[in-house]
Amino acid sequence: MITLNINNKNYNVDVDPETPLLWVLRDTLGLVGTKYGCGIAQCGACTVHLNGQAVRSCVTRVSSVAGRKVVTIEGLSEKGEHPLQKAWIELDVPQCGYCQGGQIMSAAVLIRENKNPTEKDIDNAMAGNICRCGTYLRIRKAIQLAAEIQRKGG
Amino acid sequence: MEDIKTNYSRRSFLKSSALAGGGLMISFSALAKFGLDDKVSGLELPDQWYELTGYIKITPDNIIKIFNPNPEFGQNVMTSLPMIVTEELDADWKQVVVEMGQHDSVKLGPQFTGGSNSMRMYWKPLREAGAAARNMLMQAAAQTWSVPVEEVTTKAGMLYHEKSGKSGTYGSFASKASSIPIPKGVKLKDVKNFKVVRSSKKNVEGLKIVTGKPLFGLDYKVEGMLIAMIEHPPAFGMKLRSFDASEALKMPGIKDVFSQKLYEDGFEQGGFDTRTFNDLLVVVGNTTWEVMKARKKLKVEWEPAGDTKNTMSGKREVVVPGELESTSAQLEKMKEYASKPAQQLRKDGDPETAFKNAAKIIERTYNAPFLAHNCMEPMNFFAHVTNEKAIVAGPLQAPGWSEPTLSKLLNLPADKIEIQMTRMGGGFGLRAYGHYIYEAALISKKVKAPVKLIYTREDDMTYGIYRPMYTATYRAALDANKNLIAFHVKGGGIPENAVHANRFPAGAIDNYLAEGWQIPSNITIGAFRAPRSNFAAAAEQSFLDEVAEAMGKDPIDFRLELLKRAKENPVGKNNDYNADRYAEVLKLVKEKSGWNSLENKKYSRGVAAYFCHNSYAAHVVDLIMRDGQPYVERVTSAVDCGIVINPDAAINMIQGAVVDGIGNALYGGLTHKNGVAEQNNFHRYRMIRFHEAPKKIDVHFVQNDIDPTGLGEPPFPPVFGAVANALYKNTGNRFYEQPFILQLNKISKA
Fold first, then answer.
1. Last residue of a domain, which of A50, A75, A100?
2. Is residue B253 domain-shared with residue B107, that is, in the same domain?
3. Angle, vertex CA B541, rays to CA B539 and CA B545, nearest 5
4. Å between B209 CA and nearest CA of chain A
5. What is the DSSP string of B524-561?
6. Mutating which of A15, A104, A137, A140 best tests the B interface, going by the most B Cβ atoms within 10 A?
7. B633 in contact with A at a CB cutoff of 8 Å?
8. Contact B289/A16, CB-based, under 8 Å?
9. Were both Cys, which of A109, B215, B402, B482 would link to B423 (CB 3.0–4.6 Å)?
10. Taking CA atoms, what residue in A is nearest to B212?
């Protein structure tokens, strides 16, 4: 039995300790906002926060997560009111939408750590997230908008 | 020149009924014909009229629920199609709730997403449905208020009678309206008076997407559902010989391991029933990870399949060669075929003599590799099949095309098959093919349980159904005065060519010849965003750039001259484009990009335009080189798709097509060695990433009141040509081989 803290809630899960966190979230706990895209940390669709850092849950063993805080897209905000979520809606970023949870989770660490990210900062933070529909341009603008919302206390 | 005719419904009908608990429901049906102008050769696409259906529900508390009839894969039909209904209904968009309509296995044909057809198919039926509902509500109000219906007006979901000062919500008259017969010949709004359509509305599923709600096929779950995966042969041309599952079966959570044939010999496949691997080795277990782990314990022997036969509709037999193919050999074979006589597809004038008398001949050959669709959500599907019925749910583009095959495979009548459509994590054409749905259904039937079949990324990328491998040789003949006197395209590919014989510049050149050939293969192919056009535009638009240069002309002016000729004095028949609309996007992109302005000189600029799937698109790309790597920094796009339903979403889709085009032109490609795909995940298959995408893509629409056509595909193909032309400006080298980055690396090393 492994005890997990996900979105500030404790869960006891009885799974193979090698299981990637991604599949525990999706199959065991029903938190399906974290997506499977590649399984080898190449696409970023499975990005979650582990003790505040963006990690790829598809290559993160569940056993390594015990006793640490995991935040998924479902736990980023209560009602979708995180500045990034507001900005994503304001700029109507998604097309298919599949990668966007992972994109937002990567961006959330960036704008928490860096209140006024430069283009280069954004490039670096988002290099690991693929968007097959090609919404990169809007993601960039939405990150800039979210940073602005955050600076204004939103 | 003849205009392109859009295939609207020639007959549509409406039905009204009362909602349980009060309210009005309008069901609309329309017959629509699929105008798939980019047919995939070798596949027989149905050419018939289909019935398409949807609903509008108005409840007494004034909630207006509009069903989206067509599958959603990012093209935003969940928002844009209901906008059309809302417009004619004269409802308040804020009161509208959108729900995904499910596939109606009894009444409906394909609710089909593909070919950029959603708008074309639904524009008229959706307008009619909305207008009829509005008229019925007006009649209900007129009867209640005892006033002439002509005096009743509507605005934003409210009914008014100005003289008496009476008013009421749509909801309050919905029940009464349900008893009013469907009116005939209701007048549609003048497009000039649109309030909802042509104004930007946000994605109705935006909040769900950004908060991680279950929307996609992979998120679908029912109690007791098992997970299945399929081990397919490691190479095209191989099949299962034997397997030992003893170790895999001992793994925790594993329920069953078995081999399963997809189609029995002689099974009559539908046009989109691609058979890549027929002998499947299936692992079923409780969870995804357990199944993934157990797969590694399988001991499997594969063997060459040899030549195999597919039985297509009409019992037509197609032999699939058994060779284990390699890219290098395929390229050699394409060269060999290119030198042989080919099938003549169109001939105008006397091209042979014109080439013989030419002062200068420009001849160039273009190549492009297989491309994997790489939808972010890998193929997956849920199925629960019992002896009595089947429920299947997941991401698919063409439920109506999968249903007849499911019916035959499961031996169940169509009305016992329920197909639910989830939001798709991309499709790009791949999800029109039903193999993974059939596999899921057969597995569920075998294990007698609800099952979700999941392809890993590796399964997905190595399964096949790729964009074909293409080549084309273009020749242009110039006379002594540098006039273009003849044009010749000879295109081929594995296993189809990308020659559109009647497209531009056909019609603009006196002596014209188009020829095609193809080489069969066991590497399966399918529709990929703007099938065939995605290569044709790349090659032709690069070639025209080179011809313009040889003629000493500006590339835009050169195209405009050809289009002027095609309009004023067209050569030949069946020219498959409207020269005015084509010229208009070029003129618009020229103006908006500041084509000749000095301030843009710091960029290497490339231009291209194309017409396919009934819409016109032109791009100017601005490229720079940093540390030896090409970056398209800015793009200016001009598009004519008629009336733009939801402008901001339309811009989003065009921007996405531009990024997709840059990515595939520069980096995309799948190669094979002895039948084995050399790329099986994103560490080997290069996808365009964040910092490689343009920071600015300005989109401009030609403003007109022409009935809307689609946008998913048309902006994509010309991007390739524009990138190639910009690379030339920067490097002085023409780019003939996709992906361009490989050729660029060779140049850098040399």
1. A75
2. no
3. 115
4. 6
5. -B---SSTTHHHHHHHHHHHHHHHHHHTT--HHHHHHH
6. A137
7. no
8. yes
9. B215
10. A33
Domain coverage including residue B104: 11-210
The pair of structure tokens assigned to B455 is 């392809």
Give every CB contact of residue B165 below 8 A, 6+ residues apart in sequence: none
Q: Are A28 and A15 in contact (CB under 8 A)?
A: yes
Q: Is residue B635 domain-shared with residue B560, that is, in the same domain?
A: yes
pLDDT digits (tens, 9 = 90+) for A108-129: 999 999 999 999 999 999 999 9
Which residue range is the domain that position A124 belongs to? 83-151
The total number of structural domains that make up chain A: 2
A5 touches chain B (CB under 8 A): no
Sign of the Cα torsion A71, A76, A79, A85 reads negative
Q: Are residues B421 and B534 in the same domain?
A: no
Q: Is there a single domain that holds both residue A66 and residue A105?
A: no
Inter-axis angle of helices B77-89 and B118-145, to 10 degrees?
A: 30
Q: Are residues B225 and B203 in the same domain?
A: no
Write down the pLDDT at residue B111.
Answer: 77
Residues B682, B566 share a domain: yes
Map tokens 């056993």 to a residue.
A63
> Is 50 exceeded by the pLDDT of residue B6?
no
What predicted TM-score, i.e. pTM, was given to this entire model? 0.96
Q: Pick A127's closest partner by Cβ from B206, B457, B689.
A: B689
Which of B:260-289 have CB within 8 Å of A?
287-289
Q: Answer whether B456 touches A (CB < 8 Å).
A: yes
Residue B225 contacts A where some CB pair is shorter than 8 Å: no
pLDDT digits (tens, 9 = 90+) for B49-101: 666 677 899 999 999 999 888 889 999 999 999 999 999 999 999 999 999 88
Interface of B with A in 291-310 (CB under 8 A): 293
End-of-domain residue from the set A75, A108, A134? A75
Of B209, B227, B687, the CB nearest to A100: B209
Please name which of B100, B99, B104 lies closest in space to residue B59, comparing C-alpha atoms. Answer: B99
User: Average of pLDDT values for B163-190?
Assistant: 93
Q: B425 in contact with A at a CB cutoff of 8 Å?
A: yes
Mutation target for A interface from B289, B453, B529: give the one with most A CBs within 10 A.
Answer: B289
Of B407, B422, B454, which residue sits at a domain end? B454
Q: Check if A135 contacts B (Cβ < 8 Å).
A: yes
Q: Mark which of B210, B233, B257 sits at the end of a domain.
A: B210
Q: What does the alpha-carbon distance between residue A145 and residue A112 come to, in Å, rounded to a whole number?
A: 14
Specify whether A49 is located in the same domain as A91.
no
Chain B residues with CB under 8 Å of A79 CB are 211
CA-closest candidate to residue B419, choices A3, B438, B411, B408: B438
Same domain, A67 and A88: no
Size of interface A-B (CB pairs under 8 A): 196
Task: Say whether A97 and B209 touch across the interface (CB within 8 A).
Answer: yes
